[in-house]
Amino acid sequence: MVDITLTVxxxxxxxxxEARKTLADYLRDDLELTGTHVxxxxxxxxxxxxxxxxxxxRSCLMLAVQAAGxxxxxxxxxxxxxxxxxxxxxxWDSHSFQCGFCTPGFVMQATAxxxxxxxxxxxxIREALSGxxxxxxxxxxxxxxxxxxxxxxxxxxxxxx
Amino acid sequence: xxxxxxxxxxxxxxRSEDPRILTGAGRYVDDVKLPGMLHAAFVRSPxxxxxxxxxxxxxxxxxxxxxxxxTGAEIEDMTVPGPDPLVAFFGDTGPTPEFTLLATxxxxxxGDPVAIVVAESRYLxxxxxxxxxxxxxELAPVASAAAALDPASPPLFANLGSNIAREHxxxxxxDVAAAFxxxxxxxxxxxxxxxxxxxxxxxxxxxASYDPQTAVMTFYAATQGVHVTKMGIVMRLxxxxxxxxxxxxxxxxxxxxxxxxxxxxxxxxxxxxxVARPVKWTEDRGENLTASGQAREESxxxxxxxxxxxDLLGLDVRMVVxxxxxxxxxxxxxGIVQAMLPGPYKLAAMGFEATAVTTNKAPxxxxxxxxxxxxxVRERVLDLIAHELGLDPVEIRRRNIAPRTExxxxxxxxxxxxxxxxxxSLERVAELADFPAFRRRQAAARIEGxxxxxxxxxxxxxxxxxxxxxxxxxxxxMEAMRLRLDGDGVVVLFTGQMPHGQSHQTTLxxxxxxxxxxxxxxxxxxxxxxxxxxxxxxxxxxxATMTGGVALHGTRQLKAKVLDFASHLMxxxxxxxxxxxxxxxxxGDPESAIAVTEIARQAASGDFGPGVDANLEVEAxxxxxAGGWSGGTxxxxxxxxxxxxxxxxxxxxxxxxxxxxxxxxxVEGQIRGGVAQGIGAVLLERSAYDEFGNFQSATFMxxxxxxxxxIPRIExxxxxxxxxxxxxxxRGVGEGGMIVAPPxxxxxxxxxxxxxxxxxxxxxxxxxxxxxxxxxxxxxx
Lengths: 161, 781
Ligand code: FES
Ligand code: FES
Known about the structure:
The structure holds two protein chains of two kinds. By secondary structure, chain A is of the alpha+beta class.
């Protein structure tokens, strides 16, 4: 077991993990942050995406010990007190998801995209999200949610849609 | 976040499921964590077909952290032998193969479970699996339907005596001989549909928690119906029904995979009982792709009788379905394929027979429109005939679709096409796609060396199907619901439906809020608890009519009861009372309004003496009313790069009739999701085996899933429906997209490749295959 300290959703979390434990399993089992989902465990589906030091990372491919000292944001940390952040709100308004299993990965990946490219157009959004698999929706509603969030974020509050 | 609308039904109300899903607060089965919980992993066969000579679990048992290891034989001793619970549920009769929950003497597919290891963590359970030594004597693999049909092939199941799982004897509808005698042309086609699979983003899984004190098995499931899961546990673990409690939370998709309870889940439950601790099993992606189940893989010999004008006079079809190992639903498939094969067409004569075989591959499971190959075959055959006769794909369908008449045309296999608007959907899609303009663009593109193609296909879906003389519209029977006005004034619906993405908690609340007269937020929909909900399951696109209907009629029943109670309190006749916006008031007297919450509080608070029924709860059942079909026509425009074989879908148009819409955004989500799966099936996905039965697509690097770059925007137009029922005209829409997208895409690809004379008799068209088809056609010409 290795002692590790990391910042998760703004709080400092100290614990210990077996060297082989993935960050996804550490978040889910040890920190009980089950919002992060595991869809393939081999880095393809994107369901486990979290933000580590500002960049989207597949937490099934990163070991917990590798995240020591880092700042990790999971879907639970996007909006305070169970509310919805602007991207989540836009996704609700757009009926983005169905079963919700892919959702944390898309939300985190799109959060990272919009923070770096607030002007992303549809094609750029599709490409940025093409490493995330959704089996339910055919993607259009997810893309529409991200486009709506981008539009709202660009517009000062109170100026309509 | 209150949601208010004049009328909820028919509006794209935002989903009540979303706030939890979007914040990571959803509760999926792998999120369940119980005190003392152990983790299971399975030792699985690396061989497709072998005799198990010996199994040594001692090293695994000695590993620190491993709590127990059970071999197949030990699990057999701890459980009750019997048929596949799902087969029993569907009331199937006929020879069924005999097998145990885990393999004992024989393994029948790569991934067949032979032992279960239970440990303090999943990591340790997998370590334990690595230490289990199994010796196998290899048997000749039966890796294809052709091999299975060979009487010399070694039978997978001794009690079947061969690898024929089921024969569906020849049936004739109409005068088949006369249709062929009178035909100008007779065509023969062999058409294949490849093996592909559900792949929900959440695999299977469970937490089984047996309490030796109370002898109660609490089972947290990812299932399409808690009672179906419960039935399997009762049967195979030999526990009385009142001692089994099945719970389900959010479910990460299924598409038919999670209808029943799997062999692995039952083994995990047996293990929990044996060690008297909770046991969690979470299927990983490798297990899911290899062993959870796969679908399709049917081949068809089709003979078509046709007039020179393009009238399809008769079909004669022989189907072989490769049901893989451990056949259950696959053996029952032929009946529904036969029933649906005529589709919305005038076809007057049809012969059909089928054989289901067992092979050393993953078992056949239901996948969104399990019978879909009938649509693929029919819509492919129509285009092939159109090519031969020089007809346009819209024209040949126009000639053959049964127009809406009174009385309605009847499918040659027996069911009336009541309210079916296929012709209207075809005409509308042709208009939206603008065929003449497309043909001009196609011709111009060809001059530049670009290959565009257009394809159409139609379908109907019995969701639930037309009213029959002798029972409920839906083949699975009546739908039940319990409804109650809780003491806090919330209208609570208890349904046996088990949504896994279909938004049932939203759509049922829409219907009930309108019918009762309360705001959307004042309705709660309870699912996923076998102690609370009536029998039911989500599947077969039965929700919209059956559950939507029982919600509507049940709410009406509950409302009558509430008004009756209120009439005593308010001392007016119930007939004079109405409910709007959560208030009960005397018609014409707004001053009299009392909140529903207040009436509910009073009902919960006391005894009103004889004659006053303050128990504001009802049980409702619904038979589907007039029922009806859903259906429509899809159209795709594709471009094929003849250098690389890559296909891109430029435009995809849906014209659709699923009756009255409860929530358009939900309906459209179902359609788009199905279409995406259909596009994936044609262009990407294949559950591949080599000639020895080795599985070749056990990761997402090998089993390719469509991504946001593969699926275009999907345009949807809903047609004005033909109301059949006084109250309930919602029809199911879950399966249609997946049923009709494959022929739509393949038809478009064939059209794009028509300059090469390519003819397509299969469904899976990855780039390499497209290039092969082009070069084969070039060589032939
Ligand atoms: S679970 Fe990490 S990419 Fe799929
Ligand atoms: S919503 Fe189900 S996988 Fe995306």
